[in-house]
Structures
1.
Amino acid sequence: MRKWWWWWLPGWRKAWKLEKRRIKTLSDITAERSYIERMAQRPRNAADILDGALFEMLLKRLTELEATAKRATIIDELEDLSDEAEMQGRFSAYLCPVTEIQDEGELVIDLIEGWGIPKAAIKRLRDLLAKKLEKADTNPDAARSALRALFDERDSWSDYADEYEDTMQTYTRWLFGATVILPPLAALAFHFAFRFTPLLFFGLLGAGAAGSCVSVMAKMPALDVSLSGELDAYGRRVLSRIGVGVVASLIGCASLAWFPISIQNQTFADALNACATASATAIKALILLGVPMLLGFSERTLTSFEQRVFGNSKSPKG
């Protein structure tokens, strides 16, 4: 069952994914229990009494979640159990010793900041919750409530960062696959274009799309930049950028074929005609492949050209 050749079978694959998710859920529950126990074991002064009832209730609830996870048969149910365990772990803030509340809160903020979260979000957390943490000696209940809010923010940003990495990894795999597959297909289209002329167009289209895919991979947004829009909408932006790159590539190829720009007495139109008449050499075929890929890679060139020629439509009229 652990061997790779079992993985693609539908039944084994479903069972493998379920067991993998179960192991992760049980690990999450164990981690939350361990954190709560360590928080309760921290030294505290005589006046700072541990809330034993809350401590026992949290451990009891995690034990129930663990038992449910062992019986679960649906992946979504296991994911919900992980979320529930994470929520129970946040209540460990009410078990934190008074003398360590501020340090614990500052560590959480520093951790979030280290993930590359926008500075505005970090400043908001400090302005909203840092003052409550500083008053832990005089108002421990408010300080612990602020610490729990920081735990909420930490888990929320952690989930977002994980979702971002998974999303970017998925798109990178698809774009890399397209980048590897499209150039050979474009080369084959150029090779047989003399038999069926429309293949020349499809070859240019595939080469431009390959260049656009490389451009998208090279310009994927960082974590802080991606927050300017919904992460779920990034797929639409990927398709739009590839579409713009393909159109820019075709327009550029048409312009090069129209204007008599030559390098070593060879124009782009000569390469197109040679490919269409079965007289193309390897160099000309490589030119036909490389030029639209280069134009597709610079998919923003069309936008820049439009702004320089027609001006910025968003600028106010004088």
2.
Amino acid sequence: MPAADGAVGEAEADALFADLGAERALILAVSGGADSTALLYLVVRWRGGRRGGPHLVAVTIDHGLRPEARHEATAVKRLCEKLGVEHRTMRWSEAKPSTGIQEAARLARYRLLNIAARRAKAPCVLTAHTLDDQAETVLFRMARGSGLAGICGMARRVPIGNLAAGFGQAIDAVHSARDGEDFDASERVVVVRPLLDVPKARLIVTLREAGIAYVDDPSNVDPRFARSRLRRLMPALAEEGLTPQCVARLARRVRRSEAAHEAVVDWAARRLGLGADTRRVALNGADWNEFPAEIALRLLGRVIGTIGTEGPVEFGKLETLSEALATALAEGAPRFRRTLAGAMVSLQKNRLVIDQAPARRSRPRQGDVVRKPRPDFPHK
């Protein structure tokens, strides 16, 4: 067993990176902070102890938000030269938004990392998310009212396009446009988080024992950002027993429950004959009522996501719609019609019908003739 507060040893690192040995190349996301610098050092040490192995490319993203970032990228480059690792700096050169800067920077970072991976023909991008990051993520999502899927926290492996809605298609299109290559859907890049069960403190000990310097990003403690405020609360929460290990254990248990729920939804979808090419669903309302509320909620979200034309289904709005639908079915309401994410959900003679919502009407201009709706058409 590794020491709870000691450096990460070679045998432990072998286990952390065991599933990556057969890859032809790996992209390492290295900002110069303690976590990513430790990732770089550990992967290089692991790679050096093997006969053959993946080609390593460290990538530093300069978001253009702090003047120090360029110097930090240069420091990472020097460390990579010392360790014998190829290094690239990529810059986020687009205009910066006035609000939501951290989220926009995150999206830009993954877009650039995806481009780097495609250019290097690397199937995996390694990031240095730690046990502490996992705990912060779970608490952050709980504070925002997330469902079980959010409280699962971060997975070890996730397609890079899953990190934001519609993001995968966007970055693939950007890559193809810039590099003049056809996109092969079978070669999607995967983000791997090998340090997800390792506390940050152990990574700092690892670097100190190796004599490797790192930088501290001031944005990590900036009280303007919710994650920074949560980070400041973690020591007090730990004193009450809510340690990062405890929160991460909760995430693992919720992930197990989430997998079970999704398996039941898969079964229900097959039972109802739903597929990826579904364009319209018409079901007996009594059959729908047989499903437990959570399964009905997820199934409704899946159908709306397939049929709708307006992107991802917002969880809070889906809950509201699902509860209203359940009430209408229970009360035998003669009429029910709601739209969400470009799909229309309605009750028609005891049948639940879900199809694409009609196109939104633009507001009439001055002088336009406005026709009144027919009396038999429910108008709101």
3.
Amino acid sequence: MTHRITIPDDFPRALGGTRAEEKLRALGEVHLYSDKAKDQKELIDRLKDAEAAINIRAYSHFTRDVLTSCPKLRLISIWGTGTDNVDLAAARDLGITVTNTPGANALSVAEHTLAILLSLSRQIPRLDREVRSGEWPRLEMVQLSGKVLGLLGLGAIGRHMARMAKGLGMDVMAWTFHPSQERAKESGLRFVSKEELLKNADVVSLHLRLTDETRGFFKKEDFDWMKPTAFFVNTARAGLIEPGALDYALQSKKIAGAALDVYDQEPLPPEDPLTTLPNVVLTPHNAGMTPEATINGLMMAVDNVESFLTGREIDPAHMVVKGSR
């Protein structure tokens, strides 16, 4: 039997034309869509005959209605680590396996996190803009060496971030759901309570996965704990922050600034208050977009499909929901 594999959302193009697509086509009949489904009905139409799907973009929402409308679907292989666009409870109820690609872009995201932090601390966007306009500004900037970095979450990205920050001479502390002395020793840092981290960190960087447990994890009162000279960095998910809390912190000067790659609404509307603030560095949710990270993650996603269709064991680290179909 020929396996039918669908990629409903390769827009902007990531998988098409790569060696990952070539490998995928050797596994079965591939249907690749290079435009965005205009609504849930069109998404269902694309997926209804698929045995396996590769999810490229988070704008595709695999809701319970979508999943129940696709009775042949046995596997959703997500490119990336985020699973918040898939109804995992529905997938579990329906016996659909869900996989992801943890760590595929971890180094690229960590590099980007450090880059936007440096851009913020050194006011690079403003300096570049003013020099181009013929000015020669003299601004007081922030030296990161000797400062304290507080990591909320210590997965693959957080660990890379800790290593690079230590290379700059920063002192690193972390909070995680599962602290251990072994993990602290491996990363050369110390685990502290969330409150202690917020009170002492000069930079707070968010590195948690968005789940039902972590949605709204960072609240308005958490910003109140932070130093008024501290920076806040988020390259994880906007949903980790309580709605309105970051705007409150920036506009009331509870913190000195923020560097962001993720937003409640994407693309970020030009009228969003964040776009008017001089103490914010903004990038368009592209922290993991390097050629190395892209092909690494795509090959992982295809490998998950291959393992599933051939009956080979899927890497346990990639398994989000083990289905029964």
